[in-house]
Amino acid sequence: MFSKACEYGIKATIYIAVKSMRQERVSLKEIAEEVDSPVAFTAKILQSLAKNGIIDSHKGPTGGFQIEESKIDTIKLHDIVHAIDGDKIFSGCGLGLEQCDARQPCPVHDKFVGIRDNLKIMLQNTSLYELATGLEIGLTHLKR
């Protein structure tokens, strides 16, 4: 459903949030290792997240990535998805067809519109805090 970059971005953001709630910054290498993603690919993802104000990047010997603790509850899963994948998940065809809209619907268009609307609501209502605390108490695992 989400791109591989988006999946890694969600995992990375959750990991950074968990560490930030402990007042810790994390390195690119540590994040890439934790989410099982190549370092260069992870760097591009983190750059998008920082550019969109989801995470903060600090340079230097005490640098790394973190999220202001006060922002963790206000960041929604939708913000992360939008920063990496944009809004294409909410507008594209469910079957991946180029010519699909209300005037020329694919066979699943009407069914997929409802699913897409429910997905958007879930993403807009799920906070990073909820995901990070789920990880903290063992309900969520970043690695397979």
Report what the structure shows.
- With 144 residues, the chain is mainly α.
- It has helices spanning 4-21, 28-35, 39-51, 77-85, 109-125, 128-136, and strands at residues 56-58, 64-66.
- It has a single domain (4-136), classed as Orthogonal Bundle (Arc Repressor Mutant, subunit A), CATH 1.10.10.10.
- It is built from six helices and two strands.
- Strand 1 (56-58) and strand 2 (64-66) form a beta hairpin.
- Helix 1 (4-21) packs across helix 3, helix 2 crosses helix 3 and helix 4 (77-85) crosses helix 5 (109-125).
- The protein is elongated and about 55 Å long.
- 24% of the residues are buried.
- The mean pLDDT is 90.
- One of its GO terms (molecular function) is DNA-binding transcription factor activity.
Write a brief caption for the model.
By secondary structure, the chain is mainly alpha-helical. It has helices at 4-21, 28-35, 39-51, 77-85, 109-125, 128-136; strands at 56-58, 64-66. A hairpin with a 5-residue loop joins strand 1 (56-58) and strand 2 (64-66).
Question: What is the strand and helix layout of this fold?
Answer:
Layout: H1 4-21, H2 28-35, H3 39-51, E1 56-58, E2 64-66, H4 77-85, H5 109-125, H6 128-136
Antiparallel strand pairs: 1-2
Q: Could you tell me the radius of gyration in angstroms?
A: 17 Å
Oligomeric state of the chains in view: single chain
CATH superfamily: Winged helix-like DNA-binding domain superfamily/Winged helix DNA-binding domain
User: Helical element count?
Assistant: 6
The largest sheet, given as strand count, sense and whether it forms a barrel, is: 2 strands, antiparallel
Helical/strand content category: mainly alpha
InterPro entries: TR_Rrf2-type_CS (IPR030489), Tscrpt_reg_Rrf2 (IPR000944), WH-like_DNA-bd_sf (IPR036388), WH_DNA-bd_sf (IPR036390)
Pfam family, one: Rrf2
Protein name: Transcriptional regulator, BadM/Rrf2 family
GO molecular function, one term: DNA-binding transcription factor activity
